[in-house]
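Appendix B, record 7
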Amino acid sequence: MKKFLALLALTVALSAPAWAATKTVTLSVPSMTCATCPITVREALSRVEGVIEAKVTWEPKEAVVTYDDTKTSPAALTQATENAGYPSTVKE
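Structure tokens (predicted):
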């Protein structure tokens, strides 16, 4: 019986999904030059799998992104803005 319970516990532990942690990062996007640029940046970020919310402002020129860290990363987010023509960096 003990072996069965140990095997059951091990099976449950290995088959359980990894718990996602919601994280938030702020990106500096200095290349936004007009009031419509944030729309393009927000749409680029929203297309990244794992992004929950992207708030992009022209002043200050930044994006605050909430994401699932099991599906994406800050590097993928900065790559998405760069691919849209707006290079960004992570603000510390």
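Remarks on this record: The beta strands are 22-28, 51-57, 62-68, 89-90. The chain has a mean pLDDT of 87.
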